[in-house]
Every structure is written in C-alpha cells, then in structure tokens.
Specification:
Length: 272
C-alpha cells in the first residue's frame, strides 16, 4: 500500500476520530485508481485544484464528508459522501456524467483502531479486506456502469440494407433446366409409384391407393358427356378434364372403368 503512509502523515493533524482515518484510507484508494481530488462540498469552487492530497477543511464536519474527484483524463467526475451513523459509515458515490450511484456500508470497529490514531502502523485493521470492499463496492460498479453507458452511446456499426432478393421469404427459386422438362408425376408403371401421394402428399410424386383413370398411362377414349340424354349438353357444361359419372349408359364405347367400380359395402343387399 505504497503512498498511504505518506498521505496519512500529511493528514495526521486533522485525523481526530475513527471516521477521519477511514475517509483518509478511502481517499487514498480513489486516488490510486486514477483520480485527483478537486475540493470539498457538492458544488465546484474557484479554489478547486487537482491534487493527490486531501483538500483543505476536508474533516470539518465529522458527520458528513463531501469530496469531489476528477479522473486524470478528465472523462469522469465523482462526488463522494461519507455519512456517520453511530459505529458505522455509509459511503455514497455519484458519477456526474452517467448519474450512476454506488453505496457501501462499513463498520468502523472492524477496520479502525480508534485508540491508536497517532500510530499509522496500529490505526488500520484488516487493511486488505477494507481495500477489497472499497474496490468491489465503490470503484468497480462505477467503472462498469460508465463503460456500459459509453457503449450504449457509441454509434453502432452500420451495414448496407439488404436487397429485396435477400430478404424476400416467398421467393421461389427457378427450376433447374433438366427438371423443367420432367412431367409433374412419376411413371405410373413404376413398381414403386403405388401409394406415392399417400406417403408424400406435398411432393411431386404420384400414384395413390385409388387408380386415376385420367393418369393411368394408357390411351383411352374420351367419354361423351351427353351419353344417355335425349339432347346434347350445351358447350361448356362440363369443364375440360372434369371427372364425372355419365348421365346414362355409355354404350359400346370403351370409356374406361365402370362408374360403379367402387360400390359401397352391401350395395346389393335389398334389405338395407
């Protein structure tokens, strides 16, 4: 803890109680983390000057200490207040720029021997623990919040906007040349085409459990829509390619499978 003894010797005339000794230790810790003392009180004063020593009249009020600090690069300013409450002190630090606050409460008897305030070697107890608590409770939180606030305010790296081709989720890739000439269904005579639609309903395979006479792969004679009617149907009554049951007997024309090739169960039972 180089420098603390020199600081203690320079401030010894003003150290008359335990809280004075603690504030002296606290000041030394803040200075070793890259700060200068400016002065006392909440507001700037014409007499302010950067120094590693405690400012004049720093211990006039034993119940409330108020010290102002500035980092060596001038980027941060701190307001440090120490309030005495019986045998404890409450340390409060405000960083002006980010308005971040950190607090720490210490028991004086744990770290200061008030019976030997004139002897530096016996004034402080558990010095390493005291230093660790000040760093973790005061210094580190202020620096972390400062770094976080600076990262938020820093301009973010800009990237060029994506083109419509890059972001369009509905864009359909063009088919490959060799696939555009393929038929939309597989060879119905293939040994593995049966049941293809049932196994892959969203794919391009064909061949369900029911035979499709329109896509059987064999030549067939077109069915006359007007078969069995006294007159012919008007043009357009049956859309091209529509599947339907003939209105009457189809005659001798080889029209394909019997319209009743899938009768319901018991269709020939007269008692149903």
């Amino acid at each position: 803890m180089a420098g603390l003894e020199v600081l203690f010797a320079s401030a010894a005339p003003a150290i008359t109680c335990a809280q004075d000794a603690l504030v002296c230790f606290l000041h030394w810790e803040v200075v070793t983390h890259g700060y200068y003392a400016l002065g006392t009180g909440d507001q700037p004063s014409p007499s302010d000057k950067k120094s590693e020593l405690l400012p004049a009249e720093w211990s006039n009020n034993k119940d409330l200490y108020a010290l102002r600090y500035e980092s060596k690069d001038g980027s941060r300013k701190l307001l440090l207040k120490v309030v005495t409450v019986e045998k404890s002190v409450i340390i409060n630090v405000l960083e002006y720029g980010s308005q971040q606050v950190s607090d720490l409460t210490l028991n004086l008897d744990d770290y200061i021997d008030s019976e030997h305030l004139r002897d530096f070697d016996r004034t402080y107890k558990n010095s390493e623990e005291l230093r660790s608590r000040i760093v973790s409770g005061i210094i580190t939180p202020i620096h972390e919040q400062w770094d976080k606030a600076n990262n938020v305010n820093c301009p973010q790296r800009e990237f060029p906007p994506a083109t419509a081709r890059e972001v369009d989720p509905l864009r359909i890739h063009p088919p490959h040349p060799h696939t555009s000439r393929q038929p939309p269904w597989c060879d119905p005579l293939g040994p593995f085409s049966v049941g293809g639609d049932d196994l892959d309903p969203f794919g391009c395979r064909r061949g369900g459990m029911i035979v499709d006479p329109l896509r059987s792969g064999f030549p067939r004679v077109l069915i006359d829509p007007s078969s069995g009617l006294p007159n012919r149907l008007p043009p357009g009554a049956v859309p091209p390619g529509a599947r339907f049951d003939p209105f009457g007997p189809t005659g001798t024309s080889p029209s394909g499978p019997n319209p009743d090739h899938l009768p319901p169960p018991g269709f020939d039972d007269m008692y149903l």
